[in-house]
Amino acid sequence: MMDQYLSIIKNNDINPIDLKTEYLVNPLAVDVNEPRFQWTLVATDPLKHNLSQKAYQILVSNDEQSLAKNVGNLWDTGKVVSDQTNHIHYKGKTLNAGQRAYWKVKVWDQEDKESTFSTVAYWGNALINWTAQWIGAPVGTQKNALKNIDEIDAQLVKSKPALMPVLYLRKHFTCEPTIKTAILYATAQGAYEVLLNGKPVADDRMSPGWTDYHNTIQYQAYDVTELLGKDNALGVILGTGWFSSYVGYRHQFQLYGSNQTALLELHIEYHNNEKIVIKSDNTWKVNTGPIIYSDILMGELYYQSRDIGQWSSPAYDDKSWLPVIIKPIDPKVKLVTERSQPVRVTQEISPKTRREIKPGVWVFDFEQNMVGLVKLHVPANSKSTRIQLRHAEALEKDGNVYVKNLRSALAIDTYVLDGNHTKAQDFEPHFTYHGFRYIEITGFPGEPQLTNIVGRVVHSDTPITGQLETSSPLVNRLHDNILWGQKSNFFSVPTDSPQRDERLGFLGDGEIFVHTASYNADVSAFFSKWMRDVREAQSSAGGFSNVAPRACNVVDGAPAWGDAGVIVPYTMYRQYGDLKMIEDNWEAMNKWMNYIGSQNPNYIWTKRLNNNYGDWLQVNANTPKEVLSTAYYGYDALLMSRLAAASNRTEDAKKYTELHQNIANAFNKAFVNSTDGHIKGETQTVYLLALAFEMLPEKLRPLAANNLAENIKAHNWHLTTGFIGVGYLCPVLTQFGHNDVAYRLLLQNTYPSWGYSIANNATTIWERWDGWTKEKGFQDPSMNSFNHYSLGSVGRWLFQSMAGIDTGSQRNEVGFKHILIRPNPGQGLTYVNASYKSINGRIDSSWHTSDKKFTLKINIPVNTRATVDLSFAGKLYEVGSGIYDYNNCDLD
């Protein structure tokens, strides 16, 4: 870890690294008035203890030259006595539209020794006033492009009216060679890729990302200074994206509009400070090309015969192209900067095996369920042919790909080649993505080899923060499956499935998984963006939705689904110490609480249930829906009281504390036996929610926990929980003294259990415990995803309880500034090695057991403190930063 920082380390103990602005690394467009800075600290000597930051100084300048001279001409904080390293608001001079600001920081350690300045970071201010216009194709352009295609394709396009050709837009322009900077701002009603002089300006996919296009559209900013010359051509490939592709499970298409358009401004500044703007207007040209359609659910159809050559190069002759149509910017639709990391290709995977299942039909197995694309390599001298790639998560018994669970999503990419070619060619789709482990290839010229395809993993590029390895191959695979499920479904929004005709941002899935997600990856920016979608989807009555953006499933949110509007902001506050998350969402959260409370004055949530899903996909259990809904109402009140206290809303904190108590009282009166702690329904989930949400009086909690353990024992040490209960299963068992039961469930490998899917070759989390069984085969294909992260919410427990990495135990100890190291070893595991890169630095916790002895090694990051709770061995420690070993602690 230290090697990459040796160049900045001098004679000081600590140095600032990993500078970010609004959770992002060097964002080029930020529309926050006072953006927040953050950094972490690294020790010169990792063996030294109790290192901390006493003070910091931030310099912000409008040019790197001034900053190099240690001049902050926009802001110089001076020496600020503080140990704060994140959520520090910029308080300098107001930036102009599009202006870039450069910043760096130095710190003083606990002995007042001064560090060197950090490396330079920067951010760019938003483009405040757009002068460009939306540009697209004249009416009929795309319809005419569908003429003279193969009959098989013509029938498909006719039956799927949203399958429209991709547009190509271009503009030729010249500029002076003395360019200082050039920033391109771009967005689309659709999905787009930009090329400048034949080269892509970035590596993002499916931009501008999914929002409710009726209300908000994100835009991106790209530094294209190095791509410009004297003679230039700006080109845009424009697909339908979420704007007018098929979206969701109700065959919705053109959800936001019927014709995709693009909006661009290229701001060029010369060294003499002269500025020019190249923008989308009526001087642009448009054409169609080889992509007949590229649809999120249906896939892509590519006709090589319609290739338009070097269309984005300056020398290209576009006389035959049509002039674009233009439309003004709608002032009612907000144009906002991209709030999170973009969707990108993050890795490549080669297939491991192949077999010919019938003449000319080949099935390739990547041995990993993933989400993304397949790049196809076609060798030289290939004859005219039609190559089709069909994507699937599973195989039928006969070896054919299983696609019934995709429902109406075709998930087929087709390349129609035009004849002999002397050079090898690569093909890759543009504005679609698929969930798959297997690829069926037909029509390939000759015998396809393993090297002819490569899987390209695509998802929102949230940085991985959690690492976990144990002595159990099952647990290791489970962690991998959870992480793969997260990567697969965090695609601009947290979707419920990546392969079938759905891929919606379900709030229930998001709220139950958000805590796990925040250990696996840095999702601070990702969920900040999605909570804006959640707020925009809130109804005028105050109801959060079931999905955000609100599409297909248009009713207000059900219990445990709509509650994400409170639970996600709370989790972001807890994990990242983000007070702004509270401020941004407080009004919406208040409206949600009033929405429930106004219709349920007796504190039992029976009205405004909105298709109450209950404990979705529970097994051999029937959790009463009114028990679940009321418990969630109580949990919302509990979290609101904490958020109010954290944001100094004293009266609100009191109000919501009382509300939680009133709901708990009503809950106990209606559903709980006050003598023995039995709860109506007698399911695992009713006990889990009552305990996790603090709905029971103190005296009943041990009794209820025992009832829970007895229920699990009665099911032969198997779980029965669905989407909702499963997230609280192991945490509650460990919290209330049944850690042994949590481990029995964790390591179970018969149905229903996490291990059952692993025993049956799962490489991601299944939607259902019985997605496939030896006795019945595949579940009902109408709802059977093999890549659906909700049941993987046990990942939180793996880090928080098994490895023992948690933020402090007090309500105000958030963001891992004060760390709680409280590992919980259990039978079946002999070691655990875990690390978590928190907003305050990397935390390591590694333990192993031998002969009833427990050994722990931890690494506490600079500028934090930790409580090391080894209460099972009767030991408790308070420590500062550094590496610590606790050897041969008694397990008995």
Task: Examine the secondary-structure arrangement and name the CATH architecture of the largest domain.
Answer: Alpha/alpha barrel
CATH class of the largest domain: Mainly Alpha
What can be said about the biggest beta sheet?
11 strands, mixed
CATH fold annotation of the largest domain = Glycosyltransferase
Mean pLDDT: 95
Please mark out the parts with pLDDT under 50 across 5 or more consecutive residues, or reply none. Answer: 1-10
Secondary-structure-derived class: alpha+beta
Number of helices: 17
Indicate how many domains the architecture comprises: 5
Determine the fraction of residues in helical runs and give it as a percent range: 10-25%
Distance between the amino and carboxyl termini: 36 Å
Give an overview in words:
The protein folds into 5 domains: 3-124, Immunoglobulins (Immunoglobulin-like); 134-339, Jelly Rolls, CATH 2.60.120.260; 345-460, Jelly Rolls (Sandwich); 466-802, Glycosyltransferase; 818-890, Maltose phosphorylase, domain 3 (Sandwich). It is 22% helix and 30% strand. It contains 17 helices and 49 strands. A hairpin with a 2-residue loop joins strand 45 and strand 46 (853-860). Mean pLDDT is 95; it is low at 1-10.
